[in-house]
């Protein structure tokens, strides 16, 4: 860490201390303890230090002699925070002790000296000592004050010394470059030229951006394109401006004028920004121009709004240019590209190794002399592999190799770090431009391995635990942390990768080298043969489980704030023995992750980690947790996922700073007096009892709950006023709310039930509402109006007294309605559509489910069409006779009787359609012999006449494919699932003929056919088939005689006859040759062959 970084982080750290610890509560408690004078002196000393640091901000350089003082300042700030954090811990301990009627009160600072007392021989479980605590605390604070004052004086004195003024010249790039092949970027270059010469953009002047990390080749690409003949012929005026860090609107405007002039523009030394702008506007009026703004940065010292305004003023003269004019900017930050409203963004990635090696050779030699001997070629390629695909690194390497001709000389380049020593200062400018809090967050990431896939939530929670995320009264601290991640992404410090709908954040290889460089003194990782001697300044440490032997007594554990054990994510957790020397000495920890270690007991030494905020013991073999866990009052995150716990410690409600408790739902719901955990973010299930410690009132204190909340046993609410105290209407972060009463209650007070539900009014932001088992008759008022304007999904189940639906049609955002077991509901009439809304009822409804509505006989049509409805499910509605018209967008129809998925309701009639026919793309028919026998029924005619887009069929009867209305569309079927055909033993000749008519069939799934012994003989002739699934066909022993078609890319076989598995053994099975050509072969969950291309 250099001097400027110490300066920025030091000032930030002092502010964090002020924000977190010098609160009214702590000062009042200190006064009671007799240490308020020392606390005030500490505050004054910190203020003085802060003023010294602020006084250096305008200095262009800092003397090197100040570096030791800056390092000392960092250490003393850490020590100050530890001391104040310990004081805050003891304040909380005193508060907890006072609130406990069953425990004797103790001195407020008794815990502070507990560790020293234990060191003198007292057992770990002994009570806190009671002798002369205040004096010893004061002594510690006085020692700290002396150190702070000494450091502040030293820093001040060092900064007053003469300074070696460094050159302030900017690294200005010009448009000049020898035009030729640009290695590894040909496609990007063509893409860029096409975009710049296009006139299709609606705006007369549009912005195109090239974004990427430092040294990735943004300027080189822009230079190449700038000098392309297609560009020179397309634009009347071309301008190249090197912007760099300092935004100087006067300089940039002057350079634009000079660049736009055929002869050098004489501005007569004018410093009038307005006069320059007027001249530039006249020069560019009605001309088609290209302006390149190279190396544009954004400042973290000004708001985006101010920066946008500055750029708007600067570029205002350009708006009168001719249509097709373009601004091309290069930047390391996508934030800049967004701020300047880029219509097209090109992101530059690392070069391939072959391209890197080609660039090295082309930079070393002229175009005619690339020949080198094979030994140097091999070494050169190895060097290229170390460069992380960075073009700048390739050019630096070329300069080192150009005049070296021996193998030994090239090997020296391979082994030395000289290349990165030259490149790192260029990369470091991106880091230097970060605000202090992002510097801390980014450097912290270096304790994880290269290419580590960060999960945003866990990384943010660790940042919060370290105090890197500065709180804001108006926003959740987790949301602020997510903003940090987004900012780092926009500044190219992270890239986003998506896997199975989950986003991971990865540091690009070259930026990872930067992270290791800037964090070298405080962040270390032991593992992958990268271990070196760890200095006493280390604060954050990760250890790979393969390297536990490296944990010896030479490591300075006492200063550690992070200790994370890692294992390869593809490897199962292993039982690991953590050396006792480690856990006995880590007393300053904020983050501890033991999740890969498979321990069966939480180490007793954790009781001394009173600073701990983040504890992850997920997936371990721990079955019980010690009571001392409940005295870690600073704990914010406790991850117990996958642990085999029977219960939690009894005093979990003492963890009043807990924000995230991850465990099995029944474990979390067992916490009594959970309202004390007022910062809790998630509570999946809350079970209401009549006891005060688990009454509905407890929820009233949890105002930060988000995500999903299920409240069970609502019949235990005593009064509507009690329900109102849950304050559900104040929980704006909840997206899903499930309100559940116990089913089949013997005695029900209907009026009370209605008043309770009225009092449980949710927040208007709610997205999904489930009401189950409620026994009221009258709907709550908040369902009668448009209060739930954001509600998208509603599920009403087991509400057996509900005779009339609320006006669901007037909910403006509703997309899914699921009605289940509403035994008193006989008709859905006009009341369900509502009358108070200006919008058409159900205008966004996409899915309708009527399930086990035993008394429902009709849904009356009001004349409105549910135009977006595409899925209708009707299950066990034996009396239902009529529904509204088939909507025009209906794509899937499902009907069924109890115990089965699909159709039986052959008597249900849809009202005549008044709009275009629906386009059904998926047809599911199960257990419906009557429907198959009555293909001329009104429902069937109404629906099958609209099978023009039918692509998928799921059925338990092959006979459905013989339906005349379907046979003419068989060529369009892409997916066929044959499930639970219990009678079929083989496919008949007719069945085989029908399968051959499925010319577009891509997926064939046969499952649950218990008696099936053989597959269709024509299977090998279905040339379009790409996927075959055979599942749970216990009588199926072999494949057909002919090999499966060459078009198949994937086959999955599971739960079939053991003989089939034997015949499909790789290389040795009788049927293996029939499937050997298939890229993906999976048998009973085991992947025997995997040759699919990535992304396929």
UniProtKB/TrEMBL annotation:
The keyword Repeat applies. Keywords: ATP-binding, Leucine-rich repeat, Nucleotide-binding, Plant defense, Repeat. One of its GO terms (biological process) is defense response to bacterium. The keyword Nucleotide-binding applies. Belongs to the disease resistance NB-LRR family. It comes from Panicum virgatum. SUPFAM superfamilies: L domain-like (SSF52058), P-loop containing nucleoside triphosphate hydrolases (SSF52540). InterPro entries: Apaf_helical (IPR042197), Leu-rich_rpt (IPR001611), LRR_dom_sf (IPR032675), LRR_R13L1-DRL21 (IPR056789), NB-ARC (IPR002182), P-loop_NTPase (IPR027417), Rx_N (IPR041118), WH-like_DNA-bd_sf (IPR036388). Residues 17-100 form the Disease resistance N-terminal domain. Residues 696-821 form the R13L1/DRL21-like LRR repeat region domain. This is Uncharacterized protein. PANTHER family: DISEASE RESISTANCE PROTEIN RGA3, PLANT BROAD-SPECTRUM MILDEW RESISTANCE PROTEIN RPW8. Residues 447-515 form the Disease resistance protein winged helix domain. One of its GO terms (molecular function) is ADP binding. Residues 190-368 form the NB-ARC domain.
């Amino acid at each position: 860490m250099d001097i400027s970084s110490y300066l920025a982080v030091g000032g930030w750290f002092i502010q964090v201390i002020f924000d977190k610890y010098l609160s009214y509560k702590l000062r009042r408690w200190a006064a009671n303890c007799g240490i308020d004078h020392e606390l005030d002196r500490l505050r004054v000393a910190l203020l003085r230090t802060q003023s010294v640091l602020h006084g250096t901000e305008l200095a262009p350089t800092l003397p090197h002699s100040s570096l030791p003082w800056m390092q000392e300042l960092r250490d003393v700030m850490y020590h100050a925070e530890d001391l104040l954090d310990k004081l805050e811990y003891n304040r909380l301990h005193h508060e907890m002790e006072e609130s406990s009627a069953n425990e004797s009160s103790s001195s407020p600072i008794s815990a502070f000296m507990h560790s020293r007392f234990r060191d003198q021989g007292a057992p770990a479980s002994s009570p806190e000592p009671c002798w002369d605590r205040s004096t010893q605390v004061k002594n510690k604070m006085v020692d700290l004050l002396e150190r702070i004052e000494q450091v502040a004086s030293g820093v001040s004195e060092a900064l007053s010394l003469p300074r070696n003024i460094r050159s302030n010249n900017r690294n200005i790039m010009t448009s000049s470059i020898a035009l030729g092949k640009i290695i590894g970027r040909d496609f990007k270059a063509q893409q860029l030229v096409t975009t710049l010469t296009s006139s299709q953009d609606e705006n007369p002047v549009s912005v195109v951006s090239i974004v990427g990390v430092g040294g990735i080749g943004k300027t080189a690409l822009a230079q190449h394109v700038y000098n392309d003949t297609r560009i020179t012929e397309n634009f009347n005026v071309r301008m190249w401006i090197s912007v760099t860090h300092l935004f100087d609107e006067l300089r940039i405007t002057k350079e634009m004028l000079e660049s736009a002039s055929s002869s050098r523009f004489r501005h007569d030394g004018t410093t009038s920004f307005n006069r320059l702008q007027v001249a530039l506007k006249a020069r560019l009026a009605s001309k088609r121009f290209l302006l390149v703004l190279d190396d544009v940065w954004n400042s973290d010292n000004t708001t985006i709004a101010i920066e946008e305004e500055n750029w708007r003023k600067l570029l205002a003269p350009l708006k009168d240019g001719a249509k097709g004019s373009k601004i091309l900017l290069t930047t390391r930050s996508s934030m800049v590209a967004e701020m300047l409203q880029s219509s097209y963004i090109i992101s530059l990635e690392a070069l391939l190794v072959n391209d890197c090696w080609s660039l090295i050779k082309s930079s070393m030699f002229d175009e005619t002399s690339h020949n080198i001997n094979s030994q140097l070629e091999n070494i050169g390629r190895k060097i290229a592999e170390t460069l992380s695909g960075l073009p700048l690194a390739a050019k630096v390497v070329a300069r080192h190799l150009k005049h070296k001709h021996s193998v030994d000389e090239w090997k020296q380049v391979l082994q030395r770090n000289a290349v990165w020593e030259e490149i790192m200062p260029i990369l470091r400018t991106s880091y230097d431009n970060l605000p202090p809090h992002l510097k801390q967050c980014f450097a912290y990431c270096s304790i994880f391995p290269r290419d580590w896939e960060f999960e945003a939530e866990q990384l943010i929670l660790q940042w919060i635990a370290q105090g890197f995320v500065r709180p804001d009264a108006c926003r959740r601290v987790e949301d602020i942390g997510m903003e940090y991640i987004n900012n780092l992404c926009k500044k190219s410090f992270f890239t986003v990768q998506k896997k199975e709908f989950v986003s991971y954040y990865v540091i690009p290889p070259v930026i990872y080298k930067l992270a290791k460089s800037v964090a070298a003194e405080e962040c270390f990782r032991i593992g992958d043969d990268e271990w070196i001697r760890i200095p006493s300044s280390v604060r954050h440490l990760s250890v790979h489980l393969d390297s536990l032997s490296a944990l010896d007594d030479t490591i300075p554990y006492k200063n550690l704030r992070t200790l994370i054990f890692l294992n390869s994510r593809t490897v199962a957790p292993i039982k690991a023995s953590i050396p006792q020397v480690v856990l006995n000495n880590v007393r300053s920890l904020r983050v501890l992750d033991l999740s890969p270690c498979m321990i069966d007991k939480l180490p007793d030494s954790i009781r001394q980690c009173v600073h701990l905020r983040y504890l992850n013991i997920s997936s371990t073999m721990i079955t019980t947790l010690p009571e001392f866990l409940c005295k870690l009052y600073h704990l914010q995150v406790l991850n117990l996922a996958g642990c085999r716990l029977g219960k939690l410690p009894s005093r979990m409600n003492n963890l009043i700073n807990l924000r995230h408790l991850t465990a099995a739902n029944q474990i979390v719901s067992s916490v009594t007096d959970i309202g004390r955990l007022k910062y809790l973010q998630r509570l999946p299930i809350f079970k209401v009892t009549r006891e005060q410690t688990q009454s509905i009132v407890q929820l009233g204190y949890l105002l930060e709950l988000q995500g999903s909340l299920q409240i069970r046993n609502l019949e235990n609410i005593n009064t509507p006023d009690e329900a109102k105290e849950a304050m559900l209407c104040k929980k704006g972060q909840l997206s899903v709310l499930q309100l559940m009463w116990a089913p089949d209650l013997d005695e029900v007070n209907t009026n009370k039930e209605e008043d309770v539900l009225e009092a449980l009014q949710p927040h208007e932001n709610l997205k999904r509402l489930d009401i189950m088992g409620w026994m009221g008759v009258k709907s709550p008022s908040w369902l009668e109006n448009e209060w739930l304007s954001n509600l998208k999904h509603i599920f009403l189940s087991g509400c057996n007294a509900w005779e009339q639906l609320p006006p669901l049609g007037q909910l403006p955002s509703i997309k899914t309605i699921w009605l289940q077991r509403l035994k008193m509901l006989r008709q859905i009439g006009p009341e369900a559509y509502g009358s108070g809304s200006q919008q058409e009822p159900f205008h966004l409804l996409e899915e309708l489910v009527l399930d086990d509505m035993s008394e429902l006989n009709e849904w009356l049509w009001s004349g409105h069409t549910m135009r977006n409805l595409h899925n209708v499910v009707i299950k066990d509605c034996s009396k239902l006779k009529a529904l509204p018209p088939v909507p025009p967008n209906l794509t899937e129809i499902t009907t069924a009787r109890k115990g089965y998925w699909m159709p039986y309701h052959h008597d249900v009639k849809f009202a005549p359609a008044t709009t275009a026919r629906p386009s059904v793309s998926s047809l599911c028919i199960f257990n419906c012999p009557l429907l198959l026998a009555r293909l001329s029924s009104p429902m069937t005619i109404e629906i099958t006449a609209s099978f023009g887009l039918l692509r998928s069929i799921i059925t338990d009867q092959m006979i459905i494919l013989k339906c005349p209305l379907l046979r003419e569309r068989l060529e369009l079927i892409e997916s066929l699932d044959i499930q639970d055909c219990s009678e079929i033993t083989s496919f008949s000749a007719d069945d085989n003929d029908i399968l051959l008519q499925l010319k577009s069939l891509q997926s064939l799934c046969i499952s649950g056919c218990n008696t099936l012994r053989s597959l269709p003989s024509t299977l090998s002739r279905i040339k379009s088939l790409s996927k075959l699934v055979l599942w749970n066909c216990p009588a199926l022993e072999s494949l057909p005689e002919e090999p499966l078609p060459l078009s198949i890319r994937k086959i999955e076989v599971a739960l079939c006859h053991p003989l089939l598995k034997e015949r499909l053994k790789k290389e040795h099975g009788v049927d293996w040759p029939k499937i050997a050509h298939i890229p993906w072969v999976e048998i009973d969950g085991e992947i025997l062959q995997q040759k699919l291309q990535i992304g396929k």
